[in-house]
Amino acid sequence: MAPSFAWSSLFTLCLSFTTLVTAYRPVQHCKQLGDNGHYSACTSLTQHYNQTSGQADLYVRYQWYKYQESQNGWHAFGLGNKMAGALMFIMYGNPTAPTPDMTLSVRSADGHHPPLLIHDIAKFNTPAAEGRIPEVDIITSKFEPYSGPYEHPELHLKPTHVGIADFVVHGYSKWVGTTVSNTSTAQPMIWASKYDQDFGGDYSIDRSVEMHAFGSGFGFIFADLLNAETPLPMFGSIDEQAGHKGLIEIGEPAPPTAAELSAGDFAIQNARLDAVNADLGTGPDDGKHNPFNDHNTTPSTMPESVEDGQKEGNKETIPIAVPGTTTPDAQSKPTYTLKGKTIRDWLWHVHGLLLSLTFFLFYPLGIYLLRSQNQISKGTSFNHHWTVQALATVTFSIGCFIAYLQSRSISLTHQYVGISIAFCIGTQMLLGWRHHVKFLQFKRKTIMSKIHVGLGRAIMPLGFMNILSGMKLRQYGWFTMLLVLILIVIEVVFGAVYLRGAHVRRAKMGAASVAEELKAQGPGKEDNAEEYFQLAEEDEFSDSDNEGAASQKREQKREENERLARLDRV
After folding, report:
1. What domains lie within the chain, and their CATH numbers?
2. How many angstroms separate the Cα of 404 from the Cα of each of 260, 350, 368?
3. What is d(CA 58, CA 167) in angstroms, rounded to the nearest whole number?
4. Those residues with Cβ within 8 angstroms of residue 158's Cβ, 6 or more apart along the chain or in another chain
5. Sign, CA torsion 341/345/347/348
6. What segment(s) does the record annotate as region Disordered (predicted)?
7. Do residues 139 and 167 touch, judged by C-beta distance below 8 A?
8. Taking the complete model, does pTM exceed 0.70, yes or no?
């Protein structure tokens, strides 16, 4: 027995050094935000094409760093670009328990709702989902006292415990919930955490989890899974000091560098040696490449009839790579911030603030100034109106530009509505300018004036709706959203009452004087009754004023027109 084992081990060892590794580079995501209630974890990813099952398997190593022996909180990450349809892996537990097992719960969600076990979600229990739910094989899930070298550079604290999870997602790219591709160089993933949920000792697999923290409580990852493929099944090591490798939190990762490929080759050689020394029974790699990569297969074209290794005999033995064998690359640094806020988080706040100012303050103020009797009497109504509206449009444009820089794709209803509002506002500016020019030329309203008014009445409610939808996307609490909704109702009601009152006041003040002026000008002059800047519907005038008042109002009207003419020249 011994000679046979020696020859087979020697053959495997020699072959491991002659096999050329051309694609693999280490892929890991480390985000250390300390014990201030935010995310502190590292994830390492590799994928391997299982010749037996005929599909790709994802090997995940996850390390969750706990401070001050905390029994509260949960950590999670998932495959997908949003909660709806993502394949999530949620971890929680008590590191100080006599048997410090860590619960690893595989879940999904059908929207911005609490994640549930997959079989508890209706859409994953349909014929369309049959055969497209990957099997998750949990190898390790436990807490250990932390003895590594990491110390938070700003908090000057070391973790007290680390939760370690090693698991395999067999046939992960066939997941029915969302698009997952083993050939993607920027596969979207999400992560989230909540540090203070008290589980009350109940760490069951289906235990409900509270919503993650706002701001630093969730984020995105874009991983190069195409080049994370390894020629043998293995878990990648984690270098806590290195931060990000082979992925990025915005955009698409850069192509592999020579240093990364060299580090990946070194990791594979160590994994092969571990397999030989441990006599795990893993035969030499056959050198076959993943045919899915050759044909750029996506989940929609993946053969659904193939078994995904659910039978024990179809699973390949998993050698464990030695931690710390990969060399850190200088492509990116860890994302450190004491308060857990990144520039990306703050920019979303700025986006929301600018758009809220636009629709809650500037645009309503511009409408108020247009109808203000005090402004009209001073002859400044139109100038103040267009000046404030221009400021509102600039504010709106800056907010939209920030959203454009922040967005990786256009896929949400909120984004489509925002683009529609931007188009309408651009059209509104053009219509307002043309109305002004045409009214000075023809002294009457045109069809552009009516469209300008109608479009303005449509833009405001759309803007309010999109503010609420943006708050929902950022997962504000129901109480905050209720307050904003009340503010919207107050503003709409006040605006409607004020505009109606302005309409009535103008009708009473100008009815007799306009009637006299029209008579003096002769037939066909009715359209001159409207001031050139007035964009509302035509006023209905009453005949109740006496002649003396009519003469006085006519004189005021003449003086006002002279002031407006001077303003036009300015």
Report:
1. 2-314 (2.60.40.1210), 343-569 (1.20.120)
2. 32, 13, 31
3. 8
4. 146, 150, 151, 152
5. negative
6. 279-311, 537-570
7. yes
8. no
